[in-house]
Amino acid sequence: MIDLPVSRRATLVLAAIAMLLPASGHAQATYPNKAIHIVVPFAPGGSTDVLARRLGDKLAATWGQPVVIENRPGAGGALGADFVAKSAPDGYTLLAGVTGSNAIAQALYPKLPYNVIKDFAPVSIMVTAPLVLAVNPDVKANSAAEFLALVKSKPGALSFGSAGNGTSMHLTGEMYKQAADVSIVHVPYRGSAAMLTDLMSGQIQVTFGDVLVLMPQIQASKVRALAVTSKTRHPLLPDVPTLDETGLKGFEALSWQGLFAPAGTPPEVVQKLSEEVNKIMQSADIKNYFAAQGFSVEGSTPEAFKAFVIREVEKWTPIVKTAGVKAN
User: What is the CATH number of domain 36-128+254-323?
Assistant: First the structure.
């Protein structure tokens, strides 16, 4: 056996150790060094798709690596979310997740193939938006208080429309029914367009709809906005009170979108992503564009976003179970 000097042996040991480190240390330090894929769990063209593409453009410009947007629609966002949950936890496959795919789905789908809390590493919340309690102009209520009195006096006589079973529009209506202890019949549609047509014609009387979808009809006096579902008033509807203001204390229902990585993604990578996403969301062009679309532009630490998701799951699960909501 060759007897090497102590200094030589020490050098060789250190070199051997260094060869074992790149996978954990050096690779993370140089992240990203290849294309990043952001999965949008919906078809192209919607708000989640637009947000992901604008975010991707900014990340690519900053980091000098391609950002590829993959649309994987199906099951209310669950198919795309499941794909990311089962992807390599290396920061190169991310999810543009939403209220449905990453909170409501846990209670809505009995055999959901992923766990919305355990199988993801939340990166940052990006945007939020309230829904609007709106009625057909023939409904004899000019305020949320008058509407509440009306539905209490006529249990089951009014119907509210949504874009489909299990959507945030549907479940916000169910939350309202439970909070106010009233009976309103739910009518599911395949999307917002048909629902809005029936709301304006009086086939249904009520909806809890998206600000951007309802705004032109509100401005044209074809529907009447009575309240918003956020804790604060919406900038595009400053004269419309919140449901919290009008007597349903603590009522809050938000549609939100955020970025997720698979669980097990190195914390350093998650943190780097989060810091960059927060910078991007506060850039003037992003902030102004999404504010004009009715969104509140946000940003958060990974820890704060995880806590938010947990609260959302805890909020929506009893709503789904009490209402007996089933996915289409």
Answer: 3.40.190.150
